[in-house]
Amino acid sequence: MTSFKTLDDLPDDLGGKTVLVRCDLNVPMADGDVTDDTRIRAHLPTLKELAGKGAKVLVLSHFRRPEGRAQPSMSTALLVEPMRERTGLSVRYIEDCQGPEAARAVSIMLPGAIGLLENTRFHAGETANDAALAEAMAGLGDYYVNDAFSAAHRAHASTVGITQYLPSYAGRAMEAELKALEAALGSPEHPVAAVVGGAKVSTKLAVLENLVEKVDHLIIGGGMANTFLAARGVTVGKSLMEADLVPQANDIFAAADKADCTIHLPYDVVVAKEFAAHPDSLRTVNVHEVEADEMILDIGPSAVEALADVLKTCRTLVWNGPLGAFETEPFDRATVSLAQTAAALTKEGSLTSVAGGGDTVAALNQAGVAGDFSFVSTAGGAFLEWMEGKALPGVAALRD
Predict the structure, then answer these.
(1) How do residues 164-189 score in pLDDT, each as one tens digit?
(2) With b meaning 16 or more CB within 10 Å and e meaning fewer, what string describes 83-102?
């Protein structure tokens, strides 16, 4: 792995210094309360460590999509109280993320306190990675720390441009993420398995094309599996299926053969005539027995057992996407069962397991095993782009 600096490379005493920390505080809120504080909690180790070293800590973050203009409903002022409660530190709101007014507010801050700067996206130059805005932000501090992997796939002023003007470091959350990803696909221990699920092949074509070159076992689930079954000549009834992508599915089969990667598709499936919880028409059948008026909604128990046996032979697992329509019972069974197997193997030390993406995190939480995986990434787009093998601008900027 190309090296990047971490908080360990900063001076032990940051008294008299100001550190700009790029966080991702784009959290869901209702009635003034944060409804899911996962992202805030992820940044606490970095913020507390810097404050503990006596730094003035300035938090940079976007919040929703204000499209380059100030909108009170999208102000980070709404996050001051939630941040105060969770950090247990003094947190003050600063009305801009650059300029003389912000500099004045920073000048009267006490060491060890947090200044929450206004939404970076109130400036049109943020998403354009405008050099003047990046330099103005950098003017507020002495050091820059990026702790927002979930925003690392965007080349913005606060994630990329600012690194041109300040010594730059990875925060604790970013560092943990990069180490986990390196262990999963950078230089993993083989055999490696990847579980890729989700509704549509079209959204994960690049992921599958990259993975067949890197993993030993590619497990395809969700609606995506139906397109691959169709490419193998299986009739999938009225299941979700992208007929126009059958040629690409065949290309992936060919690439897998060449790369010595085994693609695993279900040979038994759970079907129903209507998509509803516990439908009367529910049955488990061999994939060749799906009726014309039935849809495949989950992988069957025999297939899950076979996949569990595959995981037992592997040393590394990377997981993105559910195996079935997991939000509706009983179509969550395959995902829950295989996740529990992966968690048990991880706990006994035989498997390094890394998972990511919104649906995936929800599915692992539903299975009650998110805490047992080696690492669970809350990043959506950045995690997918990493699985596609793309360089992430925010990470590249730290390495450069």
Answers:
(1) 999 999 999 999 999 998 888 888 99
(2) beebbebebbbbebbbeeeb
Q: Which SS3 state, helix, strand or coil, does residue 144 take?
A: strand
The pTM of this model reads 0.88
Work out whether strand 352-356 and strand 114-117 pair parallel, antiparallel, or are unpaired.
unpaired
273 is catalytic: no
Catalytic residue chosen out of the listed positions 86, 381, 389, 399: 381
Q: Which residues of 234-256 are buried (b: 16+ CB within 10 A; e: fewer)?
A: bebbebbbbeebbebbebbbebb
Query: What pLDDT, on a 0 to 100 scale, did the predictor assign at position 32?
Result: 84
Residue among 176, 209, 122, 200 nearest 388 (CA): 209
CATH of residue 256's domain is 3.40.50.1260
**C-alpha span between 397 and 400 (Å, rounded):** 5
206 lies in the same domain as 114: no
Q: Is 39 a catalytic residue?
A: yes
> Which string of b and e fits 11-29 if b means at least 16 CB within 10 Å?
eeebeebbbbbbbbbbbee
* pLDDT tens figures, 76-118: 999 999 999 999 999 999 999 999 999 999 999 999 999 999 9
25 shares its domain with 124: yes
Q: Which of 64, 92, 179, 200 is catalytic?
A: 200
Examine residue 384 and state whether it is found in any structural domain, yes or no. Answer: no
Element (H, E) at 78: none
146 and 204 both lie in a single domain: no
User: Which residue of the set 104, 358, 368, 390 is catalytic?
Assistant: 358
- Segment 61-71 shows an average pLDDT of 94
Q: Which of 39, 53, 121, 172 is catalytic?
A: 39
Is 381 known to be catalytic? yes
